[in-house]
Amino acid sequence: MKTICLAPEPRVLVVALRRLGDVLLTTPLIRSIKQAFPEAAIEALVFAGTEGILSGNPDIAGVIAIAERQGPREFAALLQRIWRRYDLALSTQTGDRPTFLAWLGGRQSAGPLDANRLSASIKRLALSRSYTSDRGRHRIVDLLRLTELLGIPGCAEIVCPQGIVRPGLLPTSPYAVVHAAPKYTYKRWTSDGWQNLAGALRQRGLATTAVGAKSDRAYLDEVWRQSDVTRRDGTLSWPELAALIGAARVYIGPDTAVTHLAAGTGVPTVALYGPTDPRIWGPWPVGGLDRPWAAAGTIQHRGNVWLVQNPLPCLPCRLEGCERRLDSHSQCLDELAVEQVVVAVDQALAVRRAA
Q: Could you read off the pLDDT of 122-173 as tens digits, one per residue?
């Protein structure tokens, strides 16, 4: 594809109206644009509450955060704010709203299309450049097809939050970071599993630092009852969380934005996956995937990431747990043995020691 022609100091908008982890996974695309057009001023349009994952990103000149549900006045104000303001606007999703905002904001625009939607033909005419999204590919691989559309090299590197870290935040003795609270119940491991894991880490000479959101505290009070862990839930900025995880000996967590962040820092990362398909949403190691994640396995290893699953015949179902709702349990995680997780932790620690 011929390289897109932009002004000498172009303004670029990247529309990413999804959750925290999804926004983090757009950073390789943003870095690719910045490397190809160093003088570009790149802005990200995201949902309010997700902008923190972009804190201190050196490739981004600004962030526009909007409410997930906007009234007519707010939406009209947004349209007026971005109308043809950018030399290039990119949608990172196939949905109607992000595609419309990219078309509206950019004198040139590009984005993915959903082959199964009747609106795809209309969007193809509206966008300057487009491609049909491949939902069987890893999310980052699929997003980087936008760089092919633009005729620029792709950079498969997650950019983690950067910024000021309070003195004394990092423990002085060896430690592990554990994140036990995914956003949705169906992605949770068991409380007994986390407690036994903390004991196994202590036997290996590692203190446990537990992280999570302020809203997770009631659940984490139950998880960490009578456990010897240092609690940091609800007390860290995104740059501080990235620094804390990056300096740990190992990180362990479920399918959540924090686990994607951990993989991006380069720390040995043990990810516990249940219904989610890792071929699409598996953690992205530093340096990228040397080969795709398999749909299911006991312990898979790619780069600095160990992906642990309980490979029942239905895995990965790609559904919201066994009861098909966000607060459902997931048998594959309920029955995931702590011994299997500890094996993956030991493998990760061995690689860290060798390094």
A: 899 999 999 999 988 999 999 999 999 999 999 999 999 999 999 999 999 9
Rounded distance, CA 109 to CA 229, Å?
49
Residue 184, domain extent: 175-354
State the alpha helices, DSSP H only, in the chain: 20-24, 27-36, 72-82, 96-105, 120-126, 139-143, 145-150, 191-203, 217-223, 238-246, 257-265, 278-281, 331-334, 338-354
Question: How far, in Å, are 212, 221, 224, 233, 343 from residue 218 at the CA level?
Answer: 11, 5, 10, 11, 29
Q: For the domain that residue 75 is a member of, what is the CATH number?
A: 3.40.50.2000
What is the helix (H) or strand (E) element at residue 116, kind and residue range?
none
Residue 318: partners with Cβ closer than 8 Å, 6 or more residues away? 275, 276, 277
Q: Is the per-residue pLDDT at 41 higher than 90?
A: yes
pLDDT band at 231 (very low <50, low <70, confident <90, very high): very high
Is residue 245 a contact partner of residue 267, using CB atoms and an 8 Å limit?
A: yes
Query: 73: which DSSP letter?
Result: H
Q: Same domain for 116 and 16? A: yes
Q: Are residues 218 and 349 in the same domain?
A: yes
Q: Which of 220, 189, 205 is nearest to 331 (CA)?
A: 189
Residue 248: closest CA among 269, 232, 231, 227: 269
**173 token code pair:** 């003795």
pLDDT digits (tens, 9 = 90+) for 310-330: 999 999 999 999 999 999 999
How far apart are the C-alpha atoms of 355 and 350, rounded to whole Å? 9
> One-letter amino acid identity for 81?
R
44 has which bridge partners? Answer: 14, 63
Tokens matching residue 189: 């491991």
- What pTM, to 2 d.p., does this model score? 0.95
Give CA torsion, residues 18, 20, 24, 26, to 10 deg: 0
State residue 219 phi and psi, 5-degree precision. -65, -40
Is residue 248 pLDDT above 80, yes or no?
A: yes
